[in-house]
Amino acid sequence: MAPSDSLSLSCDHIQNTRQLGLVASVLLAQGDQQQVRSLGQRVLKVLESRQPEGPSLRHLLPVVSKVTSLAPDALHEEQTRALSKRLGDWLRYASVQQGVAHSSGGFFSTPRARQLGPVTEVDGAVATDFFTVLSTGQRFTEDQWLNVQAFSMLRAWLLDSEPGGSGAPDADDKSELEGSTRSVLSATSTASHLLPPQEWLREKAFEYCQRLLEQSNRRALRKADSDLQKAVSARRAGGRAGARSLAQLPLSGLLGSPQCLVEAVLVLDVLCRQDPSFLYRTLSCLKALHTRLRGDPAWVRALLPVAQFFLHHGEAAAVDADAVYQHLFSRIPAEHFHSPMLAFEFVQFCRDSLPLFGRNLGVLRTSFPNLFKFLAWNSPPLTSDFVALLPSLVDAGTAVEMLHLLLDLPCLTAALDLQLRWAPLLTASALSPPLLAPGRSCSLPSRASLCTSSPPPDGSPGAQPVFHSAVQPPRPFRVSLQLLAGSGHRDVTVTSTLVSPWPVGTVRAGAESSFGWPGPEPTSEPSLGSLSAHRSLQAASERPPWDVSIRAPGCLEAFRDSQAQGLFQHLLRAQASGTVERLTPLYRLLQPLAGCARVVQCAEAVPTLLRAFFSAVTQIADGALASQLALLLLERSDSLYQVPGYEAGVHRVLSSQFPALCKLHPPLVVEHAKELLEFVGGPRSGGHVLTSVVWAIGEYLSVSWDRRCTVEQINNFFEALEALLFEVTQSRPSTTLPKCPPQVITVLMTTLTKLASRSQDLIPRVSLLLSKMRSLAQSPATGSMPGEEDAGAVRTRATELLNLLKMPSVAQFVFTPSVEVSEPRYHRDTNTALPLVLRTVSRLVEREAGLLPG
Amino acid sequence: MVHVFLIHTLRATKAEEGLCRVLYSCFFGTENSPNDPQPHGAERDRLLRKEQILAVARQVESMCQLQQQACGRPAVDLQPQSSDDPVRLHESPCGAFRLTAGDPFQEPRTVVWLGVLSLGFALVLNAHENLLLAEGTLRLLARLLLEHLRLLVPTANLLLRADCIEGILARFLPHGQLLFLNDQFVQGLEKEFSAAWTR
What we know:
Chain A contains 37 helices and 4 strands.
């Protein structure tokens, strides 16, 4: 794909590694497979020909990595083996002395080389073992660079170079590898020296990862050293300012050990998959690692690969990893839902590991309230992932609860927002109140007692007293909320910890009156005190994740309201509780937050999610569940959190799903006649759901779907719908109410006619009613018919129905076709009765219609 | 492995709303599927890549916009107060999202993005990369580019300095390989880059 035939690059005779690297980037981008292969060969040749002390090979390793990912067959098997061997060497035997600093003094200075001594660990101590990416020094030797490169490409290489499923390479490899790699080998002549190269590399990779785990532990040990931590956080905050002393700043806050730790665990995972014999050596240290990590919020993202490891290998190692999953699903979403990257990674993890969950799928499924917190807070990037995830999360046992929560998702967003806003106030008071303990009113002190002095009069900035913790030094930034999983009848208590991402000292009494963040840029330097250093990192580096422009004074009150507490508890539960609470009081309390962009974004995502939910649930639903869900639709259609545009979007989905549920289980119309009657007789908000309910009544209220259907039932429905039709067409109490959409009128008429065709005593009534409607529609100005076009539609429908009713037996056949009619043969075969009947009927109807005026 | 690195505009001015400009992009390797029936020719491939890049840039822009809105940060917040202010990279909005296979790349990809004032930086990654590392690398690249190109100074002309960007990428993201660089390695590479650049 060179831009012109006359312009072509070739790598064939390039010896200079840097030049080869540059040419490679062009050739790789051009993407010609043949070129990529020959490039791979060339690079390998250069790599093989060089001695380790030659000029920098490090420009070539990324090329190899890229070539193998683009063209997996570019390297021959023996080349792959040889390179594996060398990678192992680079990983394990890089020099532990710092590089040589060539003094760059004046013209007269002798070209004197200065040895800087051994490399150091992350905490400044002299390295105790071999060199890794976490070892530091002022200058690095070439093999140390190669070490970094080798580790960076290790995981991909292990995966790519795995010989196609065939176990270990055979014994004759050994001689080859000796020949090709002898030059590179430094010390050590252990027994492992004789391993086949692939295994050699795995062994070295394993040692390397173990060492990284140990080194990251070292860092954790020094967590208490707040000087170092502050220095790191200052560097983060202030960019590159500040003196840089090796001893003080050994590790960049940007590229630190969490990344290495994650990679180490991922590599260990690959190793154990490729060679199960590593499993027993790995398990114990990963268990210890998990115990270490789970207590520290700063390392939370490293927990995911650990959990993934246990998912992959828990079964094989006969380890009960339930505790790992429990912690993962119960704590992390509740505490870290506001971190967009973690949310993405967590959901990716769930999605990618679905096939692996096996018997642990239950943990995932019951944790959906927690998982939905990610969704509620970060709906734009996560909606598509959840659409993919929902089919696996939906379970017959929790479907009803899940639907409720999906419909309440914007409300959950608002509640999470409130939870975040509230956490600093709690912390400011240095309380860990049994805030949401069931059956107890909140023991928060009154607002006045929270302040160190009375709030200043409005408009006196600067005189605002700063909220200080009552206890000095302030406690770590943590508020324990006892969230009860379930509604009180279970004993399972999940302790949720709110980690506040901003410092304590900046919550001001002045802001407290409006419960808003004082401003995007807190002016006073937060007094970090003895806050956990990691927490302070987090705190110093983030602005509050909520919309600071929206103040919600009343909402925070709601958290103290004894009635609302239980509801908040329910909404913010960590696991499926098996119960359903009506959250209507919360909608009112959270109304001020309904205009938040985040809430609106979430509300916009809900219709999509509902569709995904229903398409999943209709696959598994039995009759009982279908009728439960159908009732839920009716109930929730007018009980939603009032977010702009939300109700209309949800109604559109609900109205399309109600008929689908009825189709799944037709007897539900007869079974729940009472509820349906109440619905059509009750107050209504929108036309969409009503239309589909009325249609479903006409379609499924029939003996052919359920033997229990009685004439009384049909009559009852007829009367209710007749009254409804009258109400929507003739007695509009005020002109301000929106006009009734014509769809509702036509569907009502059709349904009434359908019912009449099943209980023929009603035919005179419905005929009268239809002709009334027709005449009403003919003079739209006097009636409540919307427009001329709509009136025309109503008129046409009324005429058609009237004509059909003139032939009651035909009407019955048309309106209540037998179930077999839907079978394909009635539609494929022109000789069967149905097409014939339809044609006849339509001819009759058309002729009748043609005779009638209008 | 990084598939693409790109820099694009965020939040264009009112006059050109909805117009997202890609300022720089770099593909590391192509994704020719082996069963491609026939090579399409250089020009068509180039156009395809441009479309792919633009599709990613637009998504990043809207993700960034949505995130900013959700946090209640007005658009004015995104203009630099003064060119002397150090950019608070750690406060810049960042996020990740997934691209499904075929839309717009053949394979599923993950995008990690970072919005710095009016510039968006994004890495398009293979599906199972170490996101923590990618995020760190992206922040590092953004910092280096801002420093060395003085991108936020009004007169900076990013479009004319692709060679400098290439120089940084070749060292810190060689051939799309994410590197585990601790602070000392970063310094070493920075020195090497500065030396090569001033020469």
